[in-house]
Amino acid sequence: MEYSSHEQFWGLPWETVVRRIVLVLAVCFCSLQILAAGKPKDDDLTAYLAGVTERGRDLYAYDQAAWHGTDAFLELKPNTEGLAHYICVKGANGWVITFPKWNATHDKLLIAYEALQSAPGKYQAHAHDQPLEASGALVAMELALELVIADFGTPNRPYNTAILAAPAGNFYVYLYPAQTKDTVWPLGGDVRYAVSSDGKQIIEKRQLHKTILDLEFPPDKHPVAGYHVHVLSNVPEDTDVLNVLNRRPPIPEYIGTQKQKFVVQVDGSIIIGKK
């Protein structure tokens, strides 16, 4: 039997069947769009957290180089008058920490002292009788540090600085409170700047944490984890990874945000918790 377009099919008018098929297809299409939209979102968060881990590990390596390199430098009982900021650069044979200063006309940066990594955690420092002229890259890094420190202002406690490579040849410059007691681990009050490749322009200023928490773990205590809450963002920050990698004893850090919970593990990797 043949049916015209106005006759019945499956016991329903043809127009009704067409409308229902179109509706089903539309629902399926929308569902596929939602699923497609949801997966990249999850993948984006995973990729973002991997970037936080990578930057946090790099920050830890820089922090360690600065610590041991400056210790070796101070053993020389150096003349620190006029010195600019220490700068750590990882080379093919390990870290090199430079201690430069500007010349009298402030148009050349000269390397007065260097500390070279000889083994993990070991550095040998030396003075240059005739200071070496710094490369253009070191000049840009020094300018970036000076620019950021001027913007940040003078803190009421000791601070560390670190400068890492950022996308497009730019720099990430970090300022974070320094540890002044063996059993106290400061977290918070830290900032990450993105600075142009010539060191002359601030591209972005990101406050990582607001309040400084001085977390103390006395030797007779045996904590299994730390915990803090983020109010400025809904993700872990680079210095959260630095804090976990620095802390002794090594314990994970749980982070609560308005949207999600996270765990920074002792190797710096990050687990996404339940919402």
Would you kindly provide a written description of the structure presented here, covering whatever features stand out?
It is a single chain. With 275 residues, the chain is α+β, with helices and mostly antiparallel strands. The chain has one domain. It is built from three helices and 16 strands. A four-stranded antiparallel β-sheet has the order 3-4-5-6, with helices on both faces. A four-stranded antiparallel β-sheet has the order 7-8-10-11, with helices on both faces. A four-stranded mixed β-sheet has the order 13-14-15-16. Helix 1 (14-74) packs across helix 3 (238-246). It starts with 7 loop residues before the first strand and ends with a strand.
How would the blueprint of this fold be written?
Blueprint: E1 8-9, E2 12-13, H1 14-74, E3 87-91, E4 94-102, E5 109-119, E6 122-133, H2 136-152, E7 159-165, E8 171-177, E9 184-187, E10 191-195, E11 202-207, E12 213-216, E13 226-229, H3 238-246, E14 253-256, E15 261-264, E16 270-272
Parallel strand pairs: 13-14
Antiparallel strand pairs: 1-2, 3-4, 4-5, 5-6, 7-8, 8-10, 9-12, 10-11, 14-15, 15-16
Keywords:
four-stranded antiparallel sheet; disordered N terminus; alpha+beta; 16 strands; 3 helices; 32% helix
Distance between the termini: 58 Å
> What is the domain tally?
1
* Number of H- or I-type helical stretches: 3
Largest sheet: 4 strands, antiparallel
In the predicted model, the low-confidence regions spanning at least 5 consecutive residues are: 1-40
Coarse shape:
globular
Order of the strands making up the biggest sheet: 3-4-5-6
What share of residues are in beta strands? 25-35%
By secondary-structure content and strand pairing, the structural class works out as alpha+beta
By DSSP, the count of extended strands is 16
Order of helices and strands: EEHEEEEHEEEEEEEHEEE
Rounded Rg: 27 Å
